[in-house]
Amino acid sequence: MNKLQEEAKQWVENKYNMSDFNAYQRSAARTAIYPDQHKILYPALGLAGEAGEVANKVKKIMRDGVDNQPDDWKEQIASEIGDVLWYCAALASDLGMNLGRCASLNELKLQDRKVRDKLGGSGDNR
Ligand SMILES: [Mg+2]
């Protein structure tokens, strides 16, 4: 990694590490009430379930059309996205990770792929 890349990485990490993601993670921890013996697995399963709830609501839009959705359909999806975020925060906490760093690493990965014109395609390490 050259100096410019290192500076970019540090800038992105600083952008989120001490900010909103970590504040949200601390807040989410106050409502994490599952037993300690279920740490990691509980939020991992919850994350999968809530992601499924998001997908199910989007599926219903595909099936019935946006004009046949309840008036608050966007709010319903926003609520499910929030549930996904809560489980991401809980999982990161259980793994001793900082949610802001997870966000930063993801942004770095995607920016790198964009620069290399690799946003399309598949594979974790492209
Ligand atoms: Mg939900």
Q: Tally the helices.
A: 5
Radius of gyration: 18 Å
State which percent range the strand residues make up: under 5%
How far the N terminus sits from the C terminus, by CA atoms, comes to 17 Å
Helix content: 55-70%
Low-confidence stretches: none
* Inertia-based shape: globular
- In the CATH classification, which architecture of the domain at 36-114 applies? Orthogonal Bundle
Give average pLDDT, whole number.
91
Tell how many strands the DSSP assignment holds.
Answer: 0
- CATH class (first level) name of the domain at 36-114: Mainly Alpha
CATH superfamily descriptor of the domain at 36-114: MazG-like
What are the secondary-structure elements, in order, as H or E?
Answer: HHHHH
Q: Which kinds of small molecule does this entry bind, naming each only once?
A: magnesium ion
Kindly name the structural category. Answer: mainly alpha
Q: Give the biggest sheet.
A: none
CATH topology of the domain at 36-114: the name is Helix Hairpins
